[in-house]
Amino acid sequence: MAEFAIWCFPNSASRKPAIDVPPAPPALRSWFFEAGILVCRPSAGQSGLGAALKGGHNAELHNHNDVGSFVVALGKSTPLLDPGGEVYTARTFSAKRYQSNVLNSFGHPVPIVAGQLQRLGRDAEAKVLKTEFTPERDTLVLDIRSAYPVKSLKKLHRTFVFSREGRGSLRIVDEVEFSRGESFGNALITFSKWKKQGPTRLVVGEGAEAVCVDVSADIATPNFRSEEIKEDLPSKKTPIRLGFHLPDTVTKATMTTTIAPAGDL
Fold this sequence. Notes:
By secondary structure, the chain is mainly β. The protein has one domain (24-261): Beta-galactosidase, Chain A, domain 5, CATH 2.70.98. 3% of the residues lie in helices and 45% in strands. It has 1 helix and 19 strands. It has one helix at 2-8, and strands spanning 29-32, 37-40, 49-54, 57-58, 70-74, 77-80, 112-113, 121-125, 127-133, 137-143, 153-163, 169-182, 184-190, 194-198, 201-204, 211-217, 223-228, 240-245, 250-261. An 8-stranded antiparallel beta sheet has the order 9-10-11-12-19-16-15-14, with no helix packed on it. The radius of gyration is 20 Å and the shape is globular. Mean pLDDT is 92; it is low at 1-15.
């Protein structure tokens, strides 16, 4: 074992091994059950989409209110992402921490429910309802209802389906039910250039590392609005929130977001 360790972690005293030890291919996925985080990778030798999906809760170390969040990578780019933390100030470590729109859920790709952002606390937790992992696709189903302080909210399930077919795709399905009519919307976050290709279709990113996003709902065409998130980030970049909202209040709806390399949708 010691000799193998020297081969793997060479230094000036190590010798070249008598045989080449090929690197192990990366696993198709990494599932961190206790944290509720799933990392999905393309098949071996495939150049395609990758994604990280997050359940978790809203009382984590250095917490952001981001239950149900996700990141999408293609090539060396992450066209859809979590913008990260802000430049630390006294506000960051005070009762006003979640006034920051990169620390609260406004700055994350998660729903706004009945006009409400996610609440803080250990009880604001994603419950894992289903996992199904195969060489072709990975499925993760989360119940994220507890993250929202909305009494009329009866159901909010977020389903992620990561497909390795072709260059890959990610489908996010949000199923919501209320006891009375309420508003519902969703969002994507990016630092990249973007453009509209239709009422609910976007291209985010540039060149071969751009993704196409298509958003639909079962009862109405969502309205679209883009907004800058004006907070001070270490990168000095300005995140853009690409929001999709149902035009009327609903008691039950399903909203689907499909993401794939540009040209594949």
